[in-house]
Amino acid sequence: MSRIGKKAIEVPKGVKVSLSGRTITVEGSKGTLSHEHRPEVAVKWDESEQSIVCTIDEKDAANRKIRAYWGLTRALIQNMVTGVASGYEKKLEIVGVGWGAQVAGQNLKLQLGYANPVELPIPTGLTVTAEKQNLAVSGADKQAVGDFAAKIRSKRPPEPYNGKGVKYADEVIRKKEGKKMGA
């Protein structure tokens, strides 16, 4: 049985939940998110206890795939509730002399040592703050925040010899030793 799927999702104050068919919509101070869950999983909103419960049929309990959908659905809904209540944030650092980032309207302009700056359109629902060599991507949708942060990092991933590139703030780059002359 799914240990994650069995847990009820506690909904904090100020977050509104609505169910219509297979679509669940969560609304809070950071925004509104909706998700259409799998037909194998039943989602119930308990107004009195302020919690969401995900269940599956007893006959489907032996099927591994359906149990996986059960845990996945619960985790996605939990991420939605957390996102609209407090939001998600990824911090990135740009390491390199003369490298940096700035927000220009709805675009993120990256100076990463190439001849021309790299421009990325900022997706709707996300906010990006750039201070010279520090970036912060924040928003209510966990998947969108992580995806855009990964897209920024992919433009110049950190290299192992000098450590130059775009890295996550908590990422540790293991440096390699260069070749030795006459060894």
Please give the structural blueprint.
Blueprint: H1 3-6, E1 9-10, E2 16-20, E3 23-28, E4 31-36, E5 42-46, E6 51-55, H2 64-85, E7 88-95, E8 100-104, E9 107-111, E10 118-121, E11 126-131, E12 134-139, H3 142-154, E13 165-168
Antiparallel strand pairs: 1-6, 2-3, 3-4, 5-6, 7-12, 7-13, 8-9, 9-10, 11-12
Plain-language structure description:
The structure is a single chain. The protein is elongated. The model has no long low-confidence stretch (mean pLDDT 92). The termini are far apart. It has helices spanning 3-6, 64-85, 142-154; strands spanning 9-10, 16-20, 23-28, 31-36, 42-46, 51-55, 88-95, 100-104, 107-111, 118-121, 126-131, 134-139, 165-168. Helix content is 21%, strand content 37%. With 183 residues, the protein is an alpha+beta fold. The strands form four sheets. It has a four-stranded antiparallel β-sheet with strand order 11-12-7-13, covered by helices on one side.
Brief summary of the model shown:
The protein has 183 residues and is an alpha+beta fold. The protein is 21% helix and 37% strand.
Q: What is the rounded distance between the termini?
A: 58 Å
What Rg is obtained from the alpha carbons, in whole angstroms?
Answer: 21 Å
Number of helices in the DSSP assignment: 3
What structural class do helix, strand and pairing data support?
alpha+beta
Largest sheet: 4 strands, antiparallel
Strand order of the largest sheet: 11-12-7-13
